Description:
The complex is a heterodimer of chains A (345) and B (327).
Chain A: H1 2-5, E1 8-13, E2 16-20, H2 26-34, H3 37-71, H4 93-101, H5 104-135, H6 141-153, H7 160-168, H8 179-182, H9 195-202, H10 209-221, H11 225-233, H12 238-249, H13 251-266, H14 270-274, H15 304-341
Helix pairs in contact in A: 3-15, 5-9, 5-10, 5-13, 6-10, 11-12, 13-15
Chain B: H1 2-15, H2 21-55, E1 57-61, E2 67-71, H3 75-82, H4 84-116, H5 122-129, H6 131-135, H7 138-151, H8 177-185, H9 191-202, H10 204-210, H11 212-223, H12 227-235, H13 240-269, H14 274-284, H15 292-318
Helix pairs in contact in B: 2-15, 3-15, 4-11, 4-13, 4-14, 4-15, 11-13, 13-15, 14-15
Amino acid sequence: MNKVNSPKIKRESKNRIKVDFERTNWFKRFRLRFLTGTAISKGLTWIFRFVLLLGISYVILFPFYTKIASSFMGREDFIDVTVKLIPKRPTLDTYKAVIENQGYLDGLFGTATLSLVCALLQTFVCAIIGYGFAKYKFKGRKLLFALVIFTMVIPHQTLRHSMFMRFQNFDIGIGDFGILKMLGLNQIELTGSFTPMVMLSLTGLAFKNGLFIFMFRQFFSGVPDELEESAYIDGYGPFKTFFKIILPISIPMLITVFLFSFAWQWTDNFYVSLFGIIDNKDIFLLNEIQGIPGILNVKGYPGEALFTAAVYSTEAILIMLPLVIIYLFCQKYLVQGIERSGIVG
Amino acid sequence: MTVVTKRRRKVARKRGKIVSLDRKKARAGWLFVLPFIIGLLLIYLPIVFDSLTYSFNKIVPLKGGAYRLDPVGFENYQKALQNPDFTKVLIAGVKDLVFDIPAIVIFSLFVAVLLNKKIFGRAAFRAIFFIPVILSTGLISEISHSAMAGESYMGSSGTVDDGSGQGGSGASQIVSMTDFRWLFQNMQVGGGLLKYVTGIVNDIYNIINRSGVQMLIFLAGLQSISPAIYESCSIDGATGWETFWKITFPMISPMILVNAIYTVIDSFTSSDSQIMSYISRMYGDVMNGGGPEVSTAMSWIYFSIVIGIIALVAALLSAYVFYQRRD
């Protein structure tokens, strides 16, 4: 047995040898490698896992696919029963009608401006606040942080009426004790413009900013203190340290939060209607493109229900499109930023 | 020697230049959180105070956009609680919430564990799984809802429910009760659990949509577990199952607490939730005993219930949470 398997060494020349050995035949090698219990169970779990992920991805992506497919369908496709998932007479008419008649480009401009301004402000302000909570010990820190969580817990719908009243007749202070009122000045009407949104963003109170502050706090707690100490020794002050040392190393986290705040502001419907930005004639937002363009005359058309749905889907796609593009660029950082944040305990 | 230092100290105090490092750091800390403090004191707390005030008053509009507040005590709260629809929606909503929390937390943990393993196309899967975080909110979900009315005719979307929580007709369900009945028959469990499981499976789209941020948080937690622990575990001959329950689960348990609380907050503050949309509807509906004051009172009642749920969840879970001692 031993003799058969042991390699034969032949000396070919002075400093060359040839080693000859019998290899185990391929079937035996295959059996030993792949037909053992562990290998099979490993392979099965791999397949199971892959199929599961594939299935869930399908559930996520399918609604988007039906939207996209129906947005390209021609009018006849909605009556044709044989058309299900793939448009037979592809056309861009629906897109044309929505873009030209519903004021898509104006809406894009308005929403992009609002979202960009708010998202930049929110990212920056939340980073500063989160850094303060993470790295400095001062009296009342715990109470203040509890209040941050508190702003996250109270739904803004609860504050709907009072928020509207506050920004309609803006004043600092409570009731009759407002500063402007005591000075004998008129209260300012801030609704109908971007001002309330900007004010909320500047103070870290806008939609889900509590979450952002929490994320930043966790992220900055993970940054080693030595980094700042060496910066202090080099003569940097706290703010210079923050801007020159801390911000550059936290770019993945900044992009993550920017992505969240941008996307949530982009799709926001609550605040823009609460603050009357939608009602303002000068500002046109994407929220206002909803509806059926008159040019697509749907009355009396047999496939009306489906066609209406397709038009709404088209509008949804057009609203999503810029977000998807930004997401594709940023998603690499999304996981990176979260991974590095090490949100633990 | 001592005299000199004393004198120096005195001089320094006169100039007011020596501030201890701790004080300096505390001051910088206040400066960093200053934007939040300003907003909190000047905007947020007054708004909360106003909101509470409105719920105890009747708003009488005066000429020129001004208004007068007439105190009515607990009348708004009584009106809210006497409204039969509100109590019905409230109980249904809270029940849904309690059932959804475990589903969402378990699902997102499960997916996070799957996504954390090395697998073919992991980057692509991650990109797909976080799409709902970006795209399933506010405006887009609203438009989709109005589109869904027609889309359900298509029939082609056979397996996918629209996520509106209606459960759908027989055709649009992934599994039916009968499929599961034989599975549960031998287990001697009641029909309640059966209904719960089929409900979750059919509502999977909704659950996926709502568990994006939770997945991210779990993934971050999983990444932070040191690989050395897993290594020593596998050397000791632990199986994957044991490793999960003995290592991963305790290490991730703080995240479970965070996620459970986040899920409660997220699902009750989202405008998609039944109660929130009901309260929003009552906001303008003065005819059916609604109006801004009653609507505000309703949302405060709801808020206090949810705070109770959060406290309960936190108390229940924190008994089991394991904190790794960090030096």
